[in-house]
Design goal:
Elements: H1 13-20, H2 28-39, E1 45-49, E2 57-62, E3 67-72, H3 90-113, E4 117-122, H4 127-144
Parallel strand pairs: 3-4
Antiparallel strand pairs: 1-2, 2-3
Helix pairs in contact: 2-4
């Protein structure tokens, strides 16, 4: 493995502990959005594999409507409003976050080429607004089936 890909030494035990406790799924924004969508009568799959892309999954998938929803964390996906640039191990983090963004772009393109609609929601977005946006995309397709 190249030296640039090796994980750096954590800057402190507290940072290491905090980062290791970060949820990969079922984050508070995801759960809130799912509750609102379910209350609106929509049914979906959770952590559904992206077809043809191993190790990638949609946070919320409407498989019949072919709508993929991703709830992106501001730090991990470099939100233009809330992204932070870690001072410790800054070069490693810059590369890591840039790769995350490139992976998101590739995933979007792959899904769109396969006929899926892709919805990206930032964790800081109001859950009701996000759920309304998702419902507006999914409902017409579900109603026509």
């Amino acid at each position: 493995m190249a030296a640039a890909n090796l994980r750096p030494t954590p800057s402190s035990a507290s940072v290491s502990g905090r980062m290791s406790r970060q949820r990969r799924r079922d984050t508070a924004p995801e759960v809130q959005i799912r509750r609102l969508l379910h209350a609106a009568g929509l049914r979906f799959r959770v952590t559904w594999p992206v077809p043809g892309m191993p190790r990638r999954s949609m946070d919320i998938a409407f498989t019949r409507a072919k709508v993929a929803v991703f709830v992106d964390g501001c730090f991990w996906h470099a939100c233009p409003e809330h992204a932070t640039k870690p001072v410790a191990n800054s070069e490693w983090w810059a590369e890591k976050l840039a790769k995350n963004q490139m992976r998101d772009v590739a995933t979007n393109a792959h899904l769109r080429a396969a006929g899926w609609e892709v919805v990206r929601v930032w964790e800081h977005e109001d859950p009701r607004t996000a759920a309304d946006r998702i419902r507006a995309i999914v409902k017409p397709v579900v109603d026509s089936v």
